[in-house]
Specification:
With 501 residues, the chain is mainly α. The chain contains 20 helices and 13 strands. Helix 1 (19-34) packs across helix 11 (318-324), helix 13 (355-368) packs across helix 14 (375-385) and helix 19 crosses helix 20 (478-500). The structure holds one RNA strand of 75 nucleotides. Belongs to the class-I aminoacyl-tRNA synthetase family. Glutamate--tRNA ligase type 1 subfamily.
Length: 501
RNA sequence: GGUCCGUUCGUCUAGGGGUUAGGACGCUAGGAUUUCAUCCUAGUAACAGGGGUUCGAUUCCCUUACGGACUACCA
Protein backbone atom coordinates (compact mmCIF):
# COMPACT_ATOMS: atom_id res chain seq x y z
CA UNK A 1 0.00 0.00 0.00
CA UNK A 2 1.65 3.13 -1.18
CA UNK A 3 -0.84 5.58 0.25
CA UNK A 4 -0.60 6.60 3.89
CA UNK A 5 -3.48 4.85 5.67
CA UNK A 6 -5.95 7.20 7.36
CA UNK A 7 -9.29 5.87 8.48
CA UNK A 8 -12.06 7.33 10.52
CA UNK A 9 -14.95 6.47 12.74
CA UNK A 10 -17.68 9.01 12.09
CA UNK A 11 -20.64 8.55 14.38
CA UNK A 12 -23.62 10.81 14.72
CA UNK A 13 -24.11 12.01 18.30
CA UNK A 14 -27.72 10.92 18.54
CA UNK A 15 -27.38 8.70 21.58
CA UNK A 16 -25.11 6.13 23.17
CA UNK A 17 -22.76 4.20 20.93
CA UNK A 18 -24.40 0.98 19.84
CA UNK A 19 -22.44 -2.27 19.88
CA UNK A 20 -22.49 -2.33 16.07
CA UNK A 21 -20.86 1.09 16.10
CA UNK A 22 -18.26 -0.20 18.51
CA UNK A 23 -17.41 -2.98 16.09
CA UNK A 24 -17.10 -0.52 13.21
CA UNK A 25 -14.78 1.62 15.32
CA UNK A 26 -12.78 -1.47 16.29
CA UNK A 27 -12.26 -2.62 12.71
CA UNK A 28 -11.18 0.87 11.72
CA UNK A 29 -8.76 0.92 14.64
CA UNK A 30 -7.35 -2.51 13.81
CA UNK A 31 -6.94 -1.65 10.15
CA UNK A 32 -5.18 1.62 10.97
CA UNK A 33 -2.77 0.03 13.43
CA UNK A 34 -2.10 -2.94 11.21
CA UNK A 35 -1.04 -0.58 8.42
CA UNK A 36 0.82 1.89 10.63
CA UNK A 37 -1.84 4.42 9.81
CA UNK A 38 -3.96 6.91 11.66
CA UNK A 39 -7.37 6.35 13.20
CA UNK A 40 -9.39 9.50 13.70
CA UNK A 41 -12.79 10.30 15.12
CA UNK A 42 -15.11 12.78 13.43
CA UNK A 43 -18.46 13.81 14.83
CA UNK A 44 -21.17 13.98 12.19
CA UNK A 45 -23.65 16.33 13.78
CA UNK A 46 -25.24 17.86 10.71
CA UNK A 47 -28.74 17.04 11.91
CA UNK A 48 -29.48 19.58 14.57
CA UNK A 49 -32.84 18.00 15.37
CA UNK A 50 -31.36 14.72 16.44
CA UNK A 51 -28.48 16.06 18.46
CA UNK A 52 -28.34 14.54 21.94
CA UNK A 53 -26.30 16.30 24.63
CA UNK A 54 -23.74 14.05 26.19
CA UNK A 55 -23.61 11.61 23.30
CA UNK A 56 -20.31 12.93 22.00
CA UNK A 57 -18.62 12.68 25.39
CA UNK A 58 -20.10 9.21 25.76
CA UNK A 59 -18.61 8.06 22.47
CA UNK A 60 -15.15 9.29 23.43
CA UNK A 61 -15.32 7.78 26.89
CA UNK A 62 -16.49 4.47 25.47
CA UNK A 63 -13.63 4.23 22.98
CA UNK A 64 -11.23 5.19 25.73
CA UNK A 65 -12.57 2.49 28.03
CA UNK A 66 -12.37 -0.11 25.28
CA UNK A 67 -8.76 0.81 24.62
CA UNK A 68 -9.33 1.88 21.02
CA UNK A 69 -9.19 5.65 21.40
CA UNK A 70 -8.57 7.62 18.21
CA UNK A 71 -5.16 9.10 17.40
CA UNK A 72 -6.78 12.32 16.25
CA UNK A 73 -9.99 13.98 17.27
CA UNK A 74 -11.44 16.97 19.09
CA UNK A 75 -8.79 18.13 21.52
CA UNK A 76 -6.19 15.61 20.40
CA UNK A 77 -3.62 16.02 17.62
CA UNK A 78 -5.98 18.33 15.78
CA UNK A 79 -4.24 18.30 12.40
CA UNK A 80 -7.47 18.62 10.46
CA UNK A 81 -9.56 20.58 12.92
CA UNK A 82 -12.37 21.05 13.49
CA UNK A 83 -13.51 17.45 13.87
CA UNK A 84 -17.12 18.40 14.47
CA UNK A 85 -19.09 18.89 11.28
CA UNK A 86 -21.29 21.53 12.86
CA UNK A 87 -18.12 23.61 13.23
CA UNK A 88 -17.22 23.03 9.60
CA UNK A 89 -20.57 24.32 8.41
CA UNK A 90 -19.03 27.25 6.51
CA UNK A 91 -17.05 24.86 4.30
CA UNK A 92 -19.81 22.89 2.73
CA UNK A 93 -21.80 25.56 0.88
CA UNK A 94 -18.79 26.40 -1.24
CA UNK A 95 -18.50 22.79 -2.36
CA UNK A 96 -22.19 22.54 -3.09
CA UNK A 97 -21.87 25.68 -5.23
CA UNK A 98 -18.95 24.14 -7.04
CA UNK A 99 -21.19 21.26 -8.05
CA UNK A 100 -23.90 23.68 -9.19
CA UNK A 101 -21.38 25.52 -11.34
CA UNK A 102 -20.05 22.35 -12.90
CA UNK A 103 -23.61 21.22 -13.61
CA UNK A 104 -23.34 18.23 -11.23
CA UNK A 105 -26.10 19.59 -9.03
CA UNK A 106 -29.15 21.80 -9.18
CA UNK A 107 -31.48 23.80 -6.97
CA UNK A 108 -34.83 22.31 -6.04
CA UNK A 109 -37.59 24.44 -4.56
CA UNK A 110 -40.16 21.73 -3.87
CA UNK A 111 -41.57 21.94 -0.39
CA UNK A 112 -41.60 18.96 1.92
CA UNK A 113 -45.40 19.00 1.66
CA UNK A 114 -45.31 18.89 -2.12
CA UNK A 115 -42.94 15.92 -2.08
CA UNK A 116 -45.09 14.12 0.45
CA UNK A 117 -48.05 14.61 -1.84
CA UNK A 118 -46.17 13.15 -4.80
CA UNK A 119 -45.13 10.17 -2.76
CA UNK A 120 -48.64 9.58 -1.56
CA UNK A 121 -50.12 9.87 -5.02
CA UNK A 122 -47.63 7.38 -6.44
CA UNK A 123 -48.15 5.04 -3.59
CA UNK A 124 -51.86 4.94 -4.25
CA UNK A 125 -51.09 3.75 -7.75
CA UNK A 126 -48.71 1.15 -6.43
CA UNK A 127 -45.69 3.09 -7.62
CA UNK A 128 -42.75 4.53 -5.75
CA UNK A 129 -41.94 8.18 -6.16
CA UNK A 130 -38.30 8.65 -6.90
CA UNK A 131 -36.69 12.02 -7.50
CA UNK A 132 -34.38 11.50 -10.49
CA UNK A 133 -33.88 12.04 -14.22
CA UNK A 134 -37.36 10.77 -15.03
CA UNK A 135 -39.07 13.68 -13.37
CA UNK A 136 -36.52 16.26 -12.30
CA UNK A 137 -37.41 18.42 -15.26
CA UNK A 138 -41.06 18.35 -14.36
CA UNK A 139 -40.47 19.37 -10.76
CA UNK A 140 -39.70 22.75 -9.31
CA UNK A 141 -35.98 22.90 -10.06
CA UNK A 142 -33.37 25.23 -11.49
CA UNK A 143 -33.13 22.87 -14.44
CA UNK A 144 -36.36 24.23 -15.87
CA UNK A 145 -36.15 27.91 -15.02
CA UNK A 146 -33.64 30.50 -16.09
CA UNK A 147 -30.55 31.38 -14.12
CA UNK A 148 -31.98 34.81 -13.45
CA UNK A 149 -35.21 33.37 -12.17
CA UNK A 150 -33.33 30.98 -9.93
CA UNK A 151 -31.21 33.78 -8.57
CA UNK A 152 -34.29 35.93 -8.02
CA UNK A 153 -36.12 33.22 -6.05
CA UNK A 154 -33.11 32.52 -3.89
CA UNK A 155 -32.61 36.22 -3.25
CA UNK A 156 -36.26 36.48 -2.35
CA UNK A 157 -35.60 34.05 0.48
CA UNK A 158 -37.36 31.02 -0.96
CA UNK A 159 -36.35 27.75 0.65
CA UNK A 160 -34.32 25.49 -1.56
CA UNK A 161 -32.18 22.40 -1.40
CA UNK A 162 -29.33 21.39 -3.65
CA UNK A 163 -29.70 18.01 -5.28
CA UNK A 164 -27.16 15.84 -7.02
CA UNK A 165 -27.69 15.45 -10.74
CA UNK A 166 -27.18 11.75 -11.13
CA UNK A 167 -25.94 10.64 -14.56
CA UNK A 168 -28.86 9.32 -16.57
CA UNK A 169 -27.61 6.03 -17.83
CA UNK A 170 -24.39 4.47 -16.75
CA UNK A 171 -23.37 1.17 -15.24
CA UNK A 172 -21.08 1.68 -12.32
CA UNK A 173 -18.62 -1.10 -11.55
CA UNK A 174 -17.55 -0.49 -7.99
CA UNK A 175 -15.15 -2.31 -5.77
CA UNK A 176 -15.57 -3.19 -2.12
CA UNK A 177 -12.69 -4.76 -0.20
CA UNK A 178 -15.02 -7.20 1.54
CA UNK A 179 -17.62 -7.81 -1.14
CA UNK A 180 -15.61 -7.59 -4.31
CA UNK A 181 -17.28 -6.12 -7.38
CA UNK A 182 -20.66 -4.47 -7.00
CA UNK A 183 -22.71 -3.13 -9.91
CA UNK A 184 -25.17 -0.24 -9.94
CA UNK A 185 -27.28 1.33 -12.69
CA UNK A 186 -27.29 5.09 -12.30
CA UNK A 187 -30.70 5.43 -13.97
CA UNK A 188 -32.24 3.73 -10.95
CA UNK A 189 -30.60 6.03 -8.44
CA UNK A 190 -32.31 9.09 -7.05
CA UNK A 191 -31.07 12.67 -6.95
CA UNK A 192 -30.13 12.90 -3.32
CA UNK A 193 -30.29 16.13 -1.41
CA UNK A 194 -26.75 17.35 -0.75
CA UNK A 195 -27.52 20.62 0.91
CA UNK A 196 -30.53 21.21 3.13
CA UNK A 197 -32.73 24.27 3.34
CA UNK A 198 -31.51 24.91 6.87
CA UNK A 199 -28.06 25.71 5.51
CA UNK A 200 -26.53 22.43 6.60
CA UNK A 201 -25.14 19.77 4.30
CA UNK A 202 -26.60 16.28 4.37
CA UNK A 203 -24.52 13.33 5.43
CA UNK A 204 -23.59 12.57 1.84
CA UNK A 205 -22.01 15.93 1.05
CA UNK A 206 -20.36 16.52 4.40
CA UNK A 207 -19.01 13.01 4.50
CA UNK A 208 -17.36 13.17 1.09
CA UNK A 209 -15.98 16.66 1.58
CA UNK A 210 -14.53 15.80 4.97
CA UNK A 211 -13.18 12.42 3.97
CA UNK A 212 -11.37 14.18 1.17
CA UNK A 213 -10.17 17.15 3.21
CA UNK A 214 -9.05 14.91 6.05
CA UNK A 215 -7.21 12.69 3.58
CA UNK A 216 -9.11 9.53 4.31
CA UNK A 217 -7.63 6.55 2.52
CA UNK A 218 -10.23 3.90 3.36
CA UNK A 219 -13.88 4.12 4.28
CA UNK A 220 -14.77 1.26 6.60
CA UNK A 221 -18.40 1.43 7.65
CA UNK A 222 -21.53 -0.63 8.21
CA UNK A 223 -23.34 -2.45 5.45
CA UNK A 224 -26.27 -0.07 5.70
CA UNK A 225 -24.15 2.35 3.66
CA UNK A 226 -23.62 0.04 0.73
CA UNK A 227 -26.58 1.49 -1.23
CA UNK A 228 -24.99 4.94 -0.91
CA UNK A 229 -21.69 3.86 -2.38
CA UNK A 230 -22.57 4.79 -6.01
CA UNK A 231 -23.62 8.30 -4.93
CA UNK A 232 -20.43 8.73 -2.97
CA UNK A 233 -18.20 7.50 -5.76
CA UNK A 234 -20.03 9.78 -8.19
CA UNK A 235 -19.47 12.71 -5.83
CA UNK A 236 -15.74 12.07 -5.79
CA UNK A 237 -15.84 12.04 -9.55
CA UNK A 238 -17.87 15.25 -9.69
CA UNK A 239 -15.33 17.00 -7.51
CA UNK A 240 -12.45 15.53 -9.45
CA UNK A 241 -11.07 13.87 -6.36
CA UNK A 242 -9.56 10.45 -5.98
CA UNK A 243 -11.99 8.21 -4.12
CA UNK A 244 -10.88 6.24 -1.09
CA UNK A 245 -11.26 2.48 -0.98
CA UNK A 246 -14.46 1.12 0.52
CA UNK A 247 -15.22 -1.74 2.87
CA UNK A 248 -18.75 -2.42 4.08
CA UNK A 249 -18.95 -4.44 7.26
CA UNK A 250 -21.70 -7.01 7.87
CA UNK A 251 -24.35 -6.17 10.42
CA UNK A 252 -24.77 -7.55 13.91
CA UNK A 253 -28.10 -9.35 14.19
CA UNK A 254 -30.49 -10.28 17.00
CA UNK A 255 -29.57 -13.46 18.96
CA UNK A 256 -33.01 -14.91 18.28
CA UNK A 257 -35.44 -14.06 15.56
CA UNK A 258 -34.67 -11.88 12.59
CA UNK A 259 -33.27 -8.43 12.13
CA UNK A 260 -30.69 -6.02 13.35
CA UNK A 261 -29.66 -6.10 16.99
CA UNK A 262 -31.48 -3.42 18.93
CA UNK A 263 -31.57 -1.93 22.38
CA UNK A 264 -34.75 -3.86 23.13
CA UNK A 265 -33.06 -7.22 22.53
CA UNK A 266 -30.58 -6.41 25.24
CA UNK A 267 -33.28 -5.47 27.70
CA UNK A 268 -35.29 -8.56 26.87
CA UNK A 269 -32.48 -11.09 27.06
CA UNK A 270 -30.50 -9.41 29.80
CA UNK A 271 -27.28 -8.38 28.12
CA UNK A 272 -25.95 -4.91 27.35
CA UNK A 273 -25.85 -3.51 23.84
CA UNK A 274 -23.96 -0.40 24.90
CA UNK A 275 -20.36 -0.16 26.11
CA UNK A 276 -21.23 2.15 29.00
CA UNK A 277 -24.38 2.72 30.93
CA UNK A 278 -26.62 5.41 29.44
CA UNK A 279 -29.23 7.37 31.31
CA UNK A 280 -32.01 9.23 29.56
CA UNK A 281 -35.64 10.15 30.14
CA UNK A 282 -36.56 6.78 28.71
CA UNK A 283 -34.66 5.07 31.48
CA UNK A 284 -31.32 3.47 32.07
CA UNK A 285 -29.67 1.25 29.49
CA UNK A 286 -27.08 -1.06 30.94
CA UNK A 287 -23.48 -0.96 29.78
CA UNK A 288 -20.76 -3.56 29.46
CA UNK A 289 -18.54 -1.68 31.82
CA UNK A 290 -21.14 -1.50 34.60
CA UNK A 291 -22.15 -5.13 34.09
CA UNK A 292 -18.60 -6.14 34.90
CA UNK A 293 -17.31 -7.02 31.46
CA UNK A 294 -13.62 -6.53 30.82
CA UNK A 295 -12.98 -4.26 27.85
CA UNK A 296 -10.53 -6.82 26.47
CA UNK A 297 -13.26 -9.46 26.50
CA UNK A 298 -15.71 -7.21 24.69
CA UNK A 299 -13.10 -6.35 22.07
CA UNK A 300 -12.08 -9.96 21.62
CA UNK A 301 -15.65 -11.15 21.20
CA UNK A 302 -16.57 -8.35 18.80
CA UNK A 303 -13.48 -8.86 16.69
CA UNK A 304 -14.46 -12.46 16.08
CA UNK A 305 -17.99 -11.50 15.10
CA UNK A 306 -17.57 -11.47 11.36
CA UNK A 307 -13.85 -11.91 11.16
CA UNK A 308 -11.21 -14.55 11.90
CA UNK A 309 -7.67 -15.08 10.79
CA UNK A 310 -8.21 -18.57 9.40
CA UNK A 311 -6.75 -20.35 12.42
CA UNK A 312 -8.48 -21.86 15.45
CA UNK A 313 -7.18 -19.17 17.76
CA UNK A 314 -9.91 -17.42 19.72
CA UNK A 315 -8.25 -15.54 22.53
CA UNK A 316 -6.46 -12.44 21.30
CA UNK A 317 -4.95 -9.43 22.98
CA UNK A 318 -5.50 -6.13 21.18
CA UNK A 319 -1.92 -6.31 19.91
CA UNK A 320 -2.47 -9.79 18.55
CA UNK A 321 -5.66 -8.64 16.84
CA UNK A 322 -3.80 -5.77 15.21
CA UNK A 323 -1.17 -8.19 14.04
CA UNK A 324 -3.59 -10.73 12.61
CA UNK A 325 -6.22 -8.40 11.23
CA UNK A 326 -7.03 -8.50 7.53
CA UNK A 327 -9.99 -6.60 6.13
CA UNK A 328 -10.38 -8.88 3.17
CA UNK A 329 -11.02 -11.77 5.53
CA UNK A 330 -14.10 -10.13 6.99
CA UNK A 331 -17.17 -12.30 6.49
CA UNK A 332 -19.88 -11.05 4.15
CA UNK A 333 -22.96 -12.24 5.99
CA UNK A 334 -24.46 -10.66 9.10
CA UNK A 335 -23.64 -12.30 12.42
CA UNK A 336 -26.06 -13.10 15.20
CA UNK A 337 -24.98 -11.82 18.55
CA UNK A 338 -24.45 -14.69 21.01
CA UNK A 339 -24.71 -13.53 24.64
CA UNK A 340 -23.52 -16.91 25.93
CA UNK A 341 -20.26 -16.79 24.03
CA UNK A 342 -19.87 -13.20 25.07
CA UNK A 343 -20.00 -14.36 28.70
CA UNK A 344 -17.58 -17.18 27.99
CA UNK A 345 -15.04 -14.65 26.75
CA UNK A 346 -15.44 -12.68 29.95
CA UNK A 347 -14.84 -15.82 31.96
CA UNK A 348 -11.63 -16.45 30.05
CA UNK A 349 -10.40 -12.96 30.81
CA UNK A 350 -11.46 -13.15 34.42
CA UNK A 351 -9.38 -16.29 34.92
CA UNK A 352 -6.41 -14.56 33.33
CA UNK A 353 -6.59 -11.55 35.65
CA UNK A 354 -4.18 -11.65 38.54
CA UNK A 355 -5.63 -12.30 41.96
CA UNK A 356 -4.47 -9.02 43.50
CA UNK A 357 -6.36 -7.00 40.90
CA UNK A 358 -9.45 -9.10 41.29
CA UNK A 359 -9.26 -8.73 45.07
CA UNK A 360 -9.13 -4.99 44.55
CA UNK A 361 -12.29 -5.12 42.47
CA UNK A 362 -14.00 -7.35 44.98
CA UNK A 363 -13.09 -5.29 48.07
CA UNK A 364 -15.66 -2.50 47.47
CA UNK A 365 -18.45 -5.06 47.19
CA UNK A 366 -17.39 -6.54 50.52
CA UNK A 367 -17.14 -3.15 52.12
CA UNK A 368 -20.65 -2.32 51.03
CA UNK A 369 -21.72 -5.39 52.96
CA UNK A 370 -19.75 -4.30 55.98
CA UNK A 371 -16.67 -6.49 55.69
CA UNK A 372 -13.11 -5.33 55.71
CA UNK A 373 -10.78 -8.16 54.89
CA UNK A 374 -7.00 -8.39 54.93
CA UNK A 375 -5.65 -7.99 51.41
CA UNK A 376 -3.66 -11.21 51.41
CA UNK A 377 -6.57 -13.14 52.80
CA UNK A 378 -8.86 -11.76 50.14
CA UNK A 379 -6.38 -12.52 47.38
CA UNK A 380 -6.37 -16.13 48.53
CA UNK A 381 -10.15 -16.29 48.55
CA UNK A 382 -10.31 -14.85 45.07
CA UNK A 383 -7.81 -17.40 43.81
CA UNK A 384 -10.07 -20.16 45.09
CA UNK A 385 -13.27 -18.95 43.50
CA UNK A 386 -12.42 -17.11 40.31
CA UNK A 387 -12.54 -20.18 38.11
CA UNK A 388 -16.21 -20.58 38.75
CA UNK A 389 -17.22 -17.02 37.95
CA UNK A 390 -18.01 -15.09 34.79
CA UNK A 391 -18.03 -11.73 36.57
CA UNK A 392 -16.57 -10.19 39.70
CA UNK A 393 -20.16 -9.46 40.69
CA UNK A 394 -20.65 -13.20 41.24
CA UNK A 395 -17.82 -13.39 43.76
CA UNK A 396 -19.99 -12.71 46.76
CA UNK A 397 -22.40 -15.55 46.08
CA UNK A 398 -19.45 -17.84 45.51
CA UNK A 399 -17.58 -16.89 48.64
CA UNK A 400 -20.08 -15.63 51.23
CA UNK A 401 -19.32 -18.60 53.52
CA UNK A 402 -15.82 -17.25 54.01
CA UNK A 403 -17.31 -14.24 55.73
CA UNK A 404 -20.49 -15.40 57.37
CA UNK A 405 -21.48 -18.73 58.90
CA UNK A 406 -24.32 -20.49 57.10
CA UNK A 407 -27.73 -19.56 58.45
CA UNK A 408 -29.53 -22.34 56.62
CA UNK A 409 -28.52 -25.74 55.32
CA UNK A 410 -29.28 -27.06 51.89
CA UNK A 411 -32.25 -29.36 52.30
CA UNK A 412 -31.17 -32.08 49.93
CA UNK A 413 -27.69 -32.22 51.40
CA UNK A 414 -29.06 -32.37 54.92
CA UNK A 415 -30.47 -35.80 54.19
CA UNK A 416 -26.94 -37.13 54.42
CA UNK A 417 -26.83 -36.03 58.03
CA UNK A 418 -27.35 -39.42 59.65
CA UNK A 419 -27.85 -40.51 63.24
CA UNK A 420 -24.16 -41.21 63.75
CA UNK A 421 -23.06 -37.94 62.20
CA UNK A 422 -23.18 -35.71 65.34
CA UNK A 423 -20.81 -38.08 67.17
CA UNK A 424 -18.47 -38.14 64.21
CA UNK A 425 -18.45 -34.37 63.95
CA UNK A 426 -17.78 -34.16 67.68
CA UNK A 427 -14.78 -36.42 67.20
CA UNK A 428 -13.67 -34.31 64.25
CA UNK A 429 -13.72 -31.26 66.50
CA UNK A 430 -11.35 -32.99 68.90
CA UNK A 431 -9.03 -33.86 66.07
CA UNK A 432 -9.03 -30.27 64.82
CA UNK A 433 -8.40 -28.89 68.28
CA UNK A 434 -5.15 -30.84 68.45
CA UNK A 435 -3.76 -29.33 65.25
CA UNK A 436 -1.21 -26.57 65.78
CA UNK A 437 0.00 -26.02 62.22
CA UNK A 438 -3.36 -24.98 60.86
CA UNK A 439 -2.67 -25.05 57.13
CA UNK A 440 -4.71 -26.70 54.42
CA UNK A 441 -2.29 -29.50 53.57
CA UNK A 442 -1.51 -30.30 57.17
CA UNK A 443 -5.13 -30.33 58.26
CA UNK A 444 -6.00 -32.57 55.35
CA UNK A 445 -3.27 -35.05 56.23
CA UNK A 446 -4.20 -35.23 59.89
CA UNK A 447 -7.95 -35.49 59.31
CA UNK A 448 -7.43 -38.22 56.75
CA UNK A 449 -5.09 -40.06 59.12
CA UNK A 450 -7.79 -40.02 61.73
CA UNK A 451 -10.35 -41.39 59.28
CA UNK A 452 -8.11 -44.23 58.09
CA UNK A 453 -7.09 -45.15 61.61
CA UNK A 454 -10.70 -45.43 62.70
CA UNK A 455 -11.88 -46.88 59.39
CA UNK A 456 -14.36 -44.10 58.81
CA UNK A 457 -15.60 -43.63 55.23
CA UNK A 458 -14.64 -40.36 53.58
CA UNK A 459 -18.17 -39.56 52.56
CA UNK A 460 -19.40 -39.93 56.10
CA UNK A 461 -17.18 -37.10 57.26
CA UNK A 462 -16.49 -34.87 54.31
CA UNK A 463 -20.06 -34.23 53.28
CA UNK A 464 -21.41 -33.25 56.71
CA UNK A 465 -18.19 -31.30 57.30
CA UNK A 466 -18.70 -29.27 54.12
CA UNK A 467 -22.36 -28.81 54.91
CA UNK A 468 -21.51 -27.44 58.34
CA UNK A 469 -19.03 -24.91 56.98
CA UNK A 470 -20.67 -23.88 53.73
CA UNK A 471 -24.30 -24.71 54.23
CA UNK A 472 -24.40 -26.57 50.94
CA UNK A 473 -22.40 -29.08 48.94
CA UNK A 474 -20.50 -26.59 46.86
CA UNK A 475 -17.38 -24.50 46.89
CA UNK A 476 -13.62 -24.88 46.70
CA UNK A 477 -11.42 -27.54 48.26
CA UNK A 478 -12.73 -28.04 51.79
CA UNK A 479 -9.42 -27.84 53.63
CA UNK A 480 -8.60 -24.56 51.90
CA UNK A 481 -11.81 -23.19 53.35
CA UNK A 482 -10.92 -24.58 56.77
CA UNK A 483 -7.53 -22.92 56.74
CA UNK A 484 -8.93 -19.58 55.67
CA UNK A 485 -11.75 -19.32 58.16
CA UNK A 486 -9.50 -20.63 60.92
CA UNK A 487 -9.70 -23.18 63.68
CA UNK A 488 -12.00 -21.31 66.01
CA UNK A 489 -14.60 -20.50 63.37
CA UNK A 490 -14.48 -24.03 61.93
CA UNK A 491 -15.23 -25.56 65.29
CA UNK A 492 -17.93 -23.02 66.00
CA UNK A 493 -19.68 -23.90 62.73
CA UNK A 494 -19.39 -27.60 63.42
CA UNK A 495 -20.95 -27.16 66.82
CA UNK A 496 -23.76 -25.12 65.42
CA UNK A 497 -24.48 -27.76 62.79
CA UNK A 498 -24.57 -30.45 65.47
CA UNK A 499 -27.11 -28.44 67.39
CA UNK A 500 -29.26 -27.51 64.42
CA UNK A 501 -29.33 -30.66 62.35
C1' G B 1 -42.90 -2.86 -4.70
C1' G B 2 -37.76 -1.39 -6.49
C1' U B 3 -32.28 -1.56 -5.84
C1' C B 4 -28.21 -3.86 -3.64
C1' C B 5 -25.96 -7.51 -0.33
C1' G B 6 -26.06 -12.24 1.68
C1' U B 7 -27.04 -18.02 2.81
C1' U B 8 -21.63 -24.26 5.92
C1' C B 9 -23.82 -27.66 12.70
C1' G B 10 -28.94 -24.11 17.25
C1' U B 11 -24.95 -19.85 17.31
C1' C B 12 -19.85 -17.75 15.78
C1' U B 13 -16.97 -19.74 11.99
C1' A B 14 -12.71 -22.83 8.97
C1' G B 15 -12.44 -24.99 4.34
C1' G B 16 -12.92 -24.68 -1.07
C1' G B 17 -13.68 -28.97 -7.49
C1' G B 18 -12.12 -35.42 -5.09
C1' U B 19 -12.02 -34.00 2.95
C1' U B 20 -14.40 -39.19 7.81
C1' A B 21 -16.64 -31.12 5.92
C1' G B 22 -12.41 -28.91 10.99
C1' G B 23 -12.61 -25.62 15.52
C1' A B 24 -15.27 -22.72 19.32
C1' C B 25 -19.88 -21.55 22.27
C1' G B 26 -24.15 -24.27 23.86
C1' C B 27 -26.16 -29.00 25.02
C1' U B 28 -25.55 -34.44 26.50
C1' A B 29 -22.58 -38.41 28.56
C1' G B 30 -18.13 -40.33 30.91
C1' G B 31 -13.49 -39.29 33.73
C1' A B 32 -11.56 -36.26 37.71
C1' U B 33 -12.02 -33.26 42.21
C1' U B 34 -15.76 -37.53 47.50
C1' U B 35 -19.07 -31.41 46.60
C1' C B 36 -20.15 -27.42 42.94
C1' A B 37 -17.47 -24.85 39.20
C1' U B 38 -13.11 -25.50 36.37
C1' C B 39 -10.48 -29.25 33.78
C1' C B 40 -9.92 -33.76 30.49
C1' U B 41 -12.46 -37.25 27.05
C1' A B 42 -16.34 -38.47 24.02
C1' G B 43 -21.02 -37.47 21.69
C1' U B 44 -24.80 -34.24 19.26
C1' A B 45 -25.32 -31.37 14.92
C1' A B 46 -24.36 -28.12 8.89
C1' C B 47 -22.85 -27.11 3.02
C1' A B 48 -31.21 -23.78 1.75
C1' G B 49 -33.90 -26.11 -2.94
C1' G B 50 -33.55 -26.88 -8.29
C1' G B 51 -30.90 -26.69 -12.75
C1' G B 52 -26.34 -26.52 -15.33
C1' U B 53 -20.48 -26.81 -16.18
C1' U B 54 -17.44 -31.14 -14.96
C1' C B 55 -15.20 -37.75 -14.82
C1' G B 56 -16.58 -35.44 -10.08
C1' A B 57 -19.56 -30.17 -7.00
C1' U B 58 -20.49 -27.96 -0.51
C1' U B 59 -16.83 -25.22 -3.50
C1' C B 60 -17.79 -22.32 -10.28
C1' C B 61 -22.41 -20.37 -13.16
C1' C B 62 -27.82 -19.61 -13.42
C1' U B 63 -32.32 -19.73 -10.86
C1' U B 64 -35.93 -20.18 -6.89
C1' A B 65 -36.66 -19.65 -1.82
C1' C B 66 -35.36 -17.34 2.48
C1' G B 67 -32.82 -13.45 5.30
C1' G B 68 -30.91 -8.47 5.55
C1' A B 69 -29.88 -3.34 4.29
C1' C B 70 -31.45 0.82 1.65
C1' U B 71 -35.52 3.31 -0.66
C1' A B 72 -36.06 11.20 4.32
C1' C B 73 -34.25 18.33 3.55
C1' C B 74 -31.69 11.02 9.41
C1' A B 75 -27.11 9.42 9.74
Amino acid sequence: MSKQVRVRFAPSPTGPLHIGGVRTALFNYLFAKKNSGTFYLRIEDTDQNRFVPGAEAYIMEALEWLGIAPDETIGKNEKFAPYRQSERKHLYKEYADQLINSNWAYYAFDTAEALDAYRKADEEQGKTFIYNHTNREKLDTSLVISQDETARRIAAGEHYVIRFKTPVDETLHLHDIIRGDVKFETRLLDDKVLFKSDGMPTYHLANIVDDHLMETSHVIRGEEWLPSMPLHVLLYRAFGWEAPEFAHLPLILKPIGNGKLSKRDGDKLGFPVFPLEWKSEEGISSGYREKGFFPEAVINFLALLGWNDGTDKELYTLEELVDAFDLSRVHKAGAKFDPEKNKWFNHQYLIKQNNEDLAKSFAPILESKGFTIDKNQLTKIVSLIKERAHFVSEFWDLSDFFFVAPTAYDEKASKNWKAETPALMQELISVLEEITDFTSVNIETLVKDWMTKNEIGMGKVMQPFRLSLVGALKGPHLFDIVELIGKEETIKRLQKAIETL
